[in-house]
């Protein structure tokens, strides 16, 4: 394995829930901390692997080992290093001192790797609006109508008085900004501008190079028996950072990586099926959210390549601005024991409600046990066997962006010209 590959680190930003620019300024600290924090796990930390690999951030916001910097897995030909050779057991006092000194660096790394952190909705009841006065939802709808782009998350926006999917989306923007209408409006308009330029729905139809992205991300969904409502769905996105074969290949073209990552998120939104929603949400109740699993098996959090850091930062920014209030819970599995300490450290600075969304686990095989309270009664059993379930492997039950051995790239101008001809 090349030196560059040993530096791979998974991108894990929880960007989906943090607004950028003006809105981001107000919530970036909260979002980053959300991503970095994961609820403590009862797992007994597993010993670190003999060979270490560098971690990566991928999609959402900054969070503990979390987008998301992509990690590179060590190969049999890798020369032993001081990091990959087991060290003599340290005394309790030595371990405590080392852990304490590593906390700031580990916390920083954690925030870099999470791409989908989301602002938490206020828990106050909806304000009473005088009769005849436009509601915050009405005002957001007026702002959206003034823009040229009519779609968000695959939903063609319409009058929220009669169109529940639109009402849900607008309410999510309010929730993400704690009910602040000005900030919600700013974030909404920026999302519409971004979607007009990035065309994420089209990115789902595009093929991506197999050599770069095979095995790196999946979407799975599980339905409550007898339910036909989107609220009976449980949707997961999976980021398998140990599958990165080459940092240069996967992250060398930043825009290509971002396009692939956005395509994965848009596929998850298709599975969430907001277009079929019939029940609105409030600041307190919102079932239209997604589970995220970031697997860091064979990844080291000690080194991060510049390419991975850049990809992680950009992913976090994109997801924070354009995918608010979509994260249900985030699980960081097969993480080093140090991340448990980072979680304890971060609890001092982050709201308990936020911490509850993040779960670091040293043993990925215990993941299935976390879903005993799901609306899908046998959800844990449906997960892949290597995550403690009885279901098929991710490669069999999951879907992901289209892959091809060769990809013919056409320019945006060529694509738009072809659309005009049609």
From TrEMBL:
List the coiled-coil residues: none
Signal sequence segment: none
Task: Indicate, by first and last residue, each region the UniProt record lists as having compositional bias (Low complexity).
Answer: 8-94, 102-118
Among the Pfam families in the record, one is CRAL_TRIO
Q: How does it sit in the membrane?
A: Peripheral membrane protein
* Annotated region (Disordered), positions in chain: 1-120
Q: Iron: present as a keyword of the record?
A: yes
Q: What is its main location?
A: cytoplasm
Q: Which reaction does it catalyse?
A: a 1,2-diacyl-sn-glycero-3-phospho-(1D-myo-inositol)(in) = a 1,2-diacyl-sn-glycero-3-phospho-(1D-myo-inositol)(out)
> Which intervals hold domain CRAL-TRIO?
255-395
Q: Which UniProt keywords apply?
A: Cytoplasm, Endoplasmic reticulum, Heme, Iron, Lipid transport, Membrane, Metal-binding, Microsome, Transport
The alphabetized list of GO BP terms reads:
Golgi to plasma membrane protein transport; regulation of exocytosis
Q: What is one term from the GO cellular component aspect held by the record?
A: plasma membrane
What residue ranges are annotated as transmembrane? none
Question: Cytoplasm among the record's keywords?
Answer: yes
Per its UniProt record, the required cofactor names are:
heme b
Which molecular function GO terms apply here?
Answer: metal ion binding; phosphatidylinositol transfer activity
Q: Where in the cell is it found?
A: Cytoplasm; Endoplasmic reticulum membrane; Microsome membrane
Family, as annotated: Belongs to the SFH5 family.
Role noted for this protein: Non-classical phosphatidylinositol (PtdIns) transfer protein (PITP), which exhibits PtdIns-binding/transfer activity in the absence of detectable PtdCho-binding/transfer activity. Regulates PtdIns(4,5)P2 homeostasis at the plasma membrane. Heme-binding protein that may play a role in organic oxidant-induced stress responses.
Q: Would you tell me the protein name for this molecule?
A: Phosphatidylinositol transfer protein SFH5
Q: Which organism is it from?
A: Dichotomopilus funicola
